[in-house]
């Protein structure tokens, strides 16, 4: 059993794996874990900057108790034990220390710390002798030591120790042995020791006298180990003198063990404590192969047969942390497993002699954006396809080529049949279809795709959508801490032999400077194409439907001088751009100034401002702007009404839905507004304001409708609102849509509903041709993903049902939308904290691929109109064929009978 | 007779008034939630605790608490269940909240909890449409699971009863029964009755010139079988038989 806690990379959730359970706490600082202590079956956590103290039962996964602590910023916590048992936990705050019983959380005592305004209390220590030591520091002056009695919280002793070199206790000091405070200082290059019980002065011990030296510029650290909180820590401790230079020291004799290591930790099992050391196998080959060895702490000798080999992924970065799970074998020797955390947030769990039990990519818990890319055709299929693209070179050679490719296909088919036959003889469990990059190919209905995921830490993943196995990973270097990512598919797999191409735009949010990473989404390899260096901050990027001669779509980047650059920028592209310039429009949003502005491209790749809309930033701020998805198809142009007339949809591909929230957050005055603006002309078609409402607003914009969700502060409930746009009973120009030539404003219909749950994200399903009806996919706070038919969000839902309306199949209006668990597409598998839902069409019109990402990643298929183009899994071939045969024979027999009867009649 | 009615009216009126005063009392308390946002901003405002217990009948708490959470107004405040099924959500400012226990295995009804600025608590049924309606629930909360979630729709199975109850089948089977049974019930040999029936048949078939659909079909199918000759001969033979019948 392993128990881990993850305040991983500034996320505020935690995972506790016992017998496989997990709880997800609140987002933000109130859910942050400050400290994690474990004793036996209990895990004690301090949460939310010392606001809550919780104890969990590790076996059950339930809470033992939870208490609210007094306010004050949290400093440190430790378990307090006496006579071999641990009964209390001590929590040190900025100005107070409190002791709580481990059994029920009740507070035993709380004491204010003396001189807490001047002294910075940082650590608390208990050696199991009935005293709790609180150590504080006045930077560059002295250390304050206060000892409390565990029984009643009385101050037993209190004294000051001169330490003018010390600024931070937690960084440079630790308690070893029988209460000896040991500190390291890089300025004086000395080790200081202080016996906490003796009230003496610090003894200085220059490292030079020990024959040691410090790596230049390195801040040394000390690590000690206290295997049992009711006993004092071990007298052995670790001193790190350089990035890969550790020392194992023993306090009494200061004899030491020198080791060149990357990582060292203490491990305790039973009453034995050993040090696990990770060191490179070969000095010359740096980092690639690491050895983990166990060393006896007392003697400093290497334990025999404890070597474990860890191979580092050269792309993954250095190991950062080493966790060891040790256990005593039957013969009293130490066996162990290790977990290595590397810089790219990968966890690897290994067993001796180096077998990987599992690896986990923790970076995937923070996916920022993703795309689904079609898999390439197999080589033979591609060859067949490629034949049509190439220029004809003679009739004879064409025929020969065709014959040869047909032969290749036949060969492939036979080998496939042979494989089927061969596999059929084996038991099913042995047949493994390992997915690797080499054998990836598109399936018949294009249901299997490559999911390219971009994580906040700058690691890219390629995941097979069918199995969820990670096929490639690529760690990007030099990612700024607050980077924004945009992933674009420039070339799909449809243009064989050109490889598919994805471009990732990485933008530093502070400076606006951006870089491009161009790669092949199937193999994850960096493309040989060198992207242009971007020297100016980038305001906007847009991908155009234009293609260069290599079928790569053109990416336009607008910098802060409103100059446009294209990638790829070949002659061909620039010429096309010049021709098209007058019809290329784009918009920019400046949310701080509340400005929306539309621009047009000029032939010299400069831009001109066409329109501008100012949303007063002191009243409301722009929260989100949603356009339509470029790969969306709408099959039906209108809706047939009950009287057989057609209500045409207003399908403006340039329409933008702009959501604003009021800056005034008071419940009575707050409001949200939605603006529907044409992105080309800047014409505002509609504005809807929801008074007494606040965000977060979730918006979906598709076809001729916009659905948004907000919180109604007046009635304290979540509400959905839907806006649908119609042209009216006749189309203005049914062949081409142009924003510049649409004289009539669309008809706007709107309706609102109550939704009985809060939501985390929302997206609409997408299918190949847009024939299938649409569903909304809603991530709920309970961890379910609801597939809500769009039919329920239809502003034409009537209050009074008439005959015509019944014919139109409209559902009568009901104010409350229902959440039916049958509509949960993830059943009982909760997907925590869904940050986004990605939908992609598949080759089947009925099927839409869905990926929900957040803490977890969930991929499934949805069928909004059921599987109308696929036979059911349990389609009864037997019944159908037997009925057919029965009917056939029945007709035969009855015909014969009829003939006989006729003949008999004729004879009569 | 009149008096009790009036008495009833009076009672009703009293009740209404009482209800009005009660709701007035609570609307008086409502500013709590109203200023909720403001309270959150100033962190030192009074914080309260929502307590209760969740029960899944017939299931040990250890088996389900590890998957459960207590959500207060979405994910604004989160509590966890203790090993005995009880829970407490700490640090909640005054206001009105929907408290929900979520677990993938069991369904719990949400409860609305109102906390006044003085810390008085009450629980009531959630009604999103009439938000001011008060149907009291016990506080501390006692939330009982109303059964497991049903995630799957029952697949339609093919059965004889379904088949027979199908309207199309009924439409086909009933006339068949009539055709088979009617001659047994009604004596067709009775000449008067026969005449009557013939008349009614003529009424049904207003245009005798029009080819009969069934006849057309038989023609078509027998034609497709092979030679059209056979078809014509058979039809002629059928005509012949008909004439023969008539003659008889």
TrEMBL record, chain A:
Broad class of where this protein is predominantly found: endoplasmic reticulum
Keywords on record: Endoplasmic reticulum, Glycoprotein, Membrane, Signal, Transmembrane, Transmembrane helix
InterPro entries on file: Beta-prop_EMC1_1st, EMC1, EMC1_C, Quinoprotein_ADH-like_sf
Membrane topology (UniProt): Single-pass type I membrane protein
Domain (EMC1 first beta-propeller): residue spans on this chain: 21-362
A GO CC term attached to the entry: EMC complex
Signal sequence range: 1-20
Residues covered by the ER membrane protein complex subunit 1 C-terminal domain: 702-907
Source superkingdom: Eukaryota
Subcellular localization, as worded in the UniProt entry: Endoplasmic reticulum membrane
UniProt-listed GO biological process terms: protein folding in endoplasmic reticulum
One Pfam assignment: EMC1_C
SUPFAM superfamilies for the chain: Quinoprotein alcohol dehydrogenase-like
Similarity section: Belongs to the EMC1 family.
Assembly behavior: Component of the ER membrane protein complex (EMC).
Protein name: ER membrane protein complex subunit 1
Taxonomic source organism: Cynoglossus semilaevis (Tongue sole)
Automatic annotation (TrEMBL), chain B:
Biased composition (Low complexity): 222-248
Domain of life: Eukaryota
Keywords: Membrane, Signal, Transmembrane, Transmembrane helix
One Gene Ontology molecular-function label: carbohydrate binding
A single GO cellular-component term on record: EMC complex
Domain ER membrane protein complex subunit 7 beta-sandwich span(s) in chain numbering: 60-171
Signal peptide: 1-25
Main location: membrane
Topology in membrane: Single-pass membrane protein
Disordered: region residues: 204-248
Pfam family of the protein (one): EMC7_beta-sandw
Residues that span the membrane, as ranges: 163-186
Localization annotation: Membrane
SUPFAM superfamilies: Starch-binding domain-like
Family recorded in the similarity comment: Belongs to the EMC7 family.
Self-association state and partner proteins as the record states: Component of the ER membrane protein complex (EMC).
This protein's name: Endoplasmic reticulum membrane protein complex subunit 7
């Amino acid at each position: 059993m392993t128990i881990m806690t993850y305040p991983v990379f500034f996320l505020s959730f935690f995972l506790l794996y016992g017998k496989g359970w997990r709880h997800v706490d609140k987002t933000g600082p109130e859910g942050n874990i400050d400290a994690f202590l474990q004793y036996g079956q209990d895990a004690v956590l301090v949460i939310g900057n010392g606001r809550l103290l919780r104890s969990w039962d590790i076996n059950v996964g339930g809470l033992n108790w939870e208490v609210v602590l007094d306010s004050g910023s949290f400093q440190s916590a430790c378990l307090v034990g006496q006579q071999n048992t641990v009964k209390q936990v001590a929590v040190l705050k900025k100005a107070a220390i409190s002791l709580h019983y481990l059994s029920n959380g009740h507070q035993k005592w709380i004491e204010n710390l003396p001189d807490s305004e001047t002294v910075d209390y940082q650590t608390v220590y208990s050696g199991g002798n009935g005293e709790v030591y609180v150590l504080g520091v006045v930077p560059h002056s002295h250390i304050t030591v206060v000892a409390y009695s565990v029984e009643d919280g009385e101050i037993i002793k209190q004294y000051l120790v001169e330490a003018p070199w010390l600024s931070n206790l937690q960084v440079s000091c630790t308690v070893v042995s029988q209460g000896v405070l040991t500190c390291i200082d890089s300025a004086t290059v000395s080790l200081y020791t202080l016996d906490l019980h003796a009230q003496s002065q610090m003894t200085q011990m220059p490292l030079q006298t020990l024959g040691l030296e410090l790596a230049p510029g390195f801040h040394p650290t000390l690590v000690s180990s206290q295997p049992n909180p009711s006993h004092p820590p071990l007298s052995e401790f670790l001193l790190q003198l350089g990035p890969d230079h550790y020392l194992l020291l023993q306090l009494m004799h200061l004899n030491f063990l020198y080791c060149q290591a990357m990582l060292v930790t203490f491990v305790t099992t039973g009453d034995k404590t050993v040090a696990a050391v990770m060191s490179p196998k070969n000095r010359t080959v740096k980092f690639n192969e690491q050895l983990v060895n166990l060393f006896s702490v007392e003697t400093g000798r290497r334990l025999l047969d404890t070597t474990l080999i860890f191979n580092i992924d050269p792309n993954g970065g250095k190991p950062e942390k080493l966790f060891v799970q040790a256990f005593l074998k039957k013969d009293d020797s130490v066996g162990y497993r290790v977990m290595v955390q590397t810089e790219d947030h990968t966890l690897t769990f290994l067993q001796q002699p180096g077998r990987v039990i599992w690896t986990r990519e923790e970076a995937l818990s923070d996916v920022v954006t993703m795309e689904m890319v079609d898999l390439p055709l197999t080589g033979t299929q591609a060859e067949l396809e490629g034949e049509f693209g190439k220029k004809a070179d003679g009739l004879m050679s064409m025929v020969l080529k065709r014959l040869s490719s047909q032969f290749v296909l036949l060969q492939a088919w036979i080998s496939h049949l042979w494989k089927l036959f061969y596999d059929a003889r084996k038991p099913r469990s042995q047949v493994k279809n390992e997915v690797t990059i080499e054998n990836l190919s598109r399936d018949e209905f294009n249901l299997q795709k490559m999911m390219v995921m971009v994580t906040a830490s700058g690691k890219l993943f390629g995941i097979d959508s069918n199995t969820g196995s990670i096929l490639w990973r690529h760690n990007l270097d030099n990612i700024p801490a607050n980077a924004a990512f945009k992933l674009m598919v420039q070339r799909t797999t449809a243009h064989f032999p050109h490889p598919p191409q994805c471009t990732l735009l990485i933008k530093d949010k502070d400076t606006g400077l951006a870089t491009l990473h161009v790669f092949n989404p199937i193999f994850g390899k960096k493309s040989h194409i060198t992207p242009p260096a971007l020297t100016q901050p980038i305001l906007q990027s847009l991908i155009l439907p234009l293609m260069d001669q290599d079928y790569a779509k053109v990416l336009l980047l607008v910098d802060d001088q409103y100059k446009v650059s294209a990638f790829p920028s070949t002659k061909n592209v620039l010429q096309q751009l010049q021709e098209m310039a007058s019809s290329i429009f784009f918009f920019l949003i400046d949310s701080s100034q509340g400005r929306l502005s539309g621009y047009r491209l000029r032939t010299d790749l400069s831009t001109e401002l066409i329109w501008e809309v100012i949303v007063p930033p002191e009243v409301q701020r722009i929260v989100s702007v949603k356009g339509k998805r470029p790969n969306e198809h709408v099959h039906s142009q209108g809706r047939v009404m009950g009287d057989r007339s057609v209500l045409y949809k207003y399908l403006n591909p340039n329409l933008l839905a702009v959501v604003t929230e009021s800056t005034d957050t008071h419940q009575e005055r707050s409001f949200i507004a939605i603006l529907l603006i044409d992105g080309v002309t800047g014409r505002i078609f509609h504005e809807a304001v929801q008074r007494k409402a606040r965000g977060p607003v979730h918006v979906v914009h598709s076809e001729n409708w916009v659905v948004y969700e907000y919180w109604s502060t007046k009635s304290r409930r979540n509400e959905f609102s839907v806006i649908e746009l119609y042209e009216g009973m006749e189309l203005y120009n049914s062949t081409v849509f142009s924003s510049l030539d649409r004289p009539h404003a669309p008809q706007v219909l709107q309706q609102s509903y109550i939704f009985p749950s809060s939501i985390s994200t929302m997206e609409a399903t997408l299918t190949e041709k847009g024939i299938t009806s649409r569903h909304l996919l809603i991530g709920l706070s309970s961890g379910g993903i609801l597939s809500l038919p769009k039919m329920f969000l239809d502003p034409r839902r009537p209050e009074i049902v008439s005959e015509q309306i019944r014919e139109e199949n409209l559902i009568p209006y009901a104010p409350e939308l229902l959440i039916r668990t049958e509509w949960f597409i993830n059943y009982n598998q909760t997907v925590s904290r869904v940050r986004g839902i990605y939908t992609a069409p598949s080759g089947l019109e009925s099927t839409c691929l869905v990926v929900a990402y957040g803490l977890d990643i969930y991929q499934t298929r949805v069928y909004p109109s059921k599987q109308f183009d696929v036979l059911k899994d349990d389609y009864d071939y037997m019944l159908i064929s037997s009925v057919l045969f029965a009917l056939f024979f029945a007709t035969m027999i009855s015909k014969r009978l009829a003939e006989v009867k006729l003949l008999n009649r004729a004879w009569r | 007779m009149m008096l009790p009615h009036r008495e009833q009216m009076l009672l009703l009126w009293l009740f209404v008034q009482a209800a009005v005063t009660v709701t007035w009392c609570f609307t008086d308390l409502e500013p709590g939630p109203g200023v909720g946002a403001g309270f959150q901003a100033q962190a030192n405002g009074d914080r309260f605790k929502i307590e209760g217990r969740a029960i899944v009948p017939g299931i040990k708490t250890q088996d389900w608490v590890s998957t459960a959470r207590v959500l207060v107004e979405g994910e604004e405040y989160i509590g966890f269940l203790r090993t005995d099924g009880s829970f407490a959500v700490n640090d909640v400012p005054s206001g009105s909240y929907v408290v929900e226990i979520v677990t993938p295995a069991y369904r719990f009804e949400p409860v609305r909890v109102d906390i006044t600025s003085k810390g008085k608590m009450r629980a009531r049924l959630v009604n999103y449409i009439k938000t001011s309606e008060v149907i009291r629930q016990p506080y501390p909360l006692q939330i009982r699971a109303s059964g497991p979630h049903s995630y799957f729709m029952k697949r339609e199975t093919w059965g004889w009863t379904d088949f027979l109850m199908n309207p199309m089948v009924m439409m086909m089977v009933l006339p068949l029964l009539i055709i088979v049974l009617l001659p047994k019930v009604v004596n067709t040999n009775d000449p008067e009755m026969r005449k009557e029936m013939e008349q009614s048949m003529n009424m049904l078939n207003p245009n005798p010139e029009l080819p009969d659909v069934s006849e057309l079909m038989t023609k078509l199918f027998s034609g497709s079988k092979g030679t059209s000759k056979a078809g014509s001969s058979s039809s002629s033979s059928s005509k012949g038989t008909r004439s023969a019948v008539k003659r008889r």
